[in-house]
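Re: weekly structure request thread

Next one in the queue (162 aa):
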Amino acid sequence: MSPARSLDVTCYRAVYRDYRAEPLPSRSPAGRFHASAAPGTVTYLAADPATAWREVTERWAADPKSYWMAEVKVKLAGVADLTDPKTQAHYDVDERVLTGVDHRPCQRLAERLRADGFEAAWTYSRADSPHGRQLVVFLDGLRSGSSVRVRTVTPVRDVLPE
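Done, posted below.
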């Protein structure tokens, strides 16, 4: 098993206004790091608000007036750092695979990471390449003492510069 790292950070997630009361779970039936996971058991969090917004606008012509930004405090003990070359070698992936159009390799990797006991994966943002990062959290796999807590939810237009 690749070494796990702990993480104690603030992350961000842009969500449509209808979901601002419960902004964490991904509502998509399939995503880059989830396919067979039960709905609502995975969340995608960005390292900063700009990356979170780019993740939304890469897929949709999103109006900032309709979106909110969740600030999320994350404390995890078991994170696979997929930006680390040793971890990439262990799982036979690279940045190209982790940000590619075909999500199947990442979905298979997510299954392996879950089986290896990881709570999350720190990875690249396809939407905010080359510097953007995101944290994929397996909400149903959190260990005792780990937490993912929403601090605030603010209109996107109040968070991002114009």
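The chain is about 20% helix and 30% strand. The radius of gyration is 15 Å.
Next request, please.
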